Sequence to fold (151 residues):
Amino acid sequence: MANKKNANTVTQFLNVHLSDLHVMYTKLHNYHWNVEGRGFFQLHAKLEELYDGVAGELDEVAERILQLGERPFATMKDYLANAKIKEVESKGISPDEVLSALQKDYEYTIESLKNGIDIAGEADDPVTEDMLTGMLAGYEKNLWMIKAYLA
Ligand SMILES: [Fe+2]
Fold:
């Protein structure tokens, strides 16, 4: 188990990641509701699968923060103040625009997770490292699918 000081750098990262996941969760619902045009059925269903996945991840991240002896952010105020992923307004959006926007958010998330994996590695916290690596694999797979769809 990581020592207390190192655990703090890990939980600081995890709280930012938790904030990003909450904004992503809301954003994926936004697109699920507002996507329109050809490809609607596919994307509407895919977005539901994606936000369900994010719901599982944010719970796992919050509970990891507790295991490390800190408190997870648990208010929308904290999430919005700490997330790097930005919300978007509620308006009609085409499948291609959704996927282009998601591509950017996933590219950011992949870089962020790699940074978190480094932080957990430096803190001798293989459990967090493993958790984040599993999540990274999912985002890399999703990014590949988005690029294939847009190609
Ligand atoms: Fe729905």
User: Anything to note?
Assistant: DSSP finds five helices and no strands in the chain.
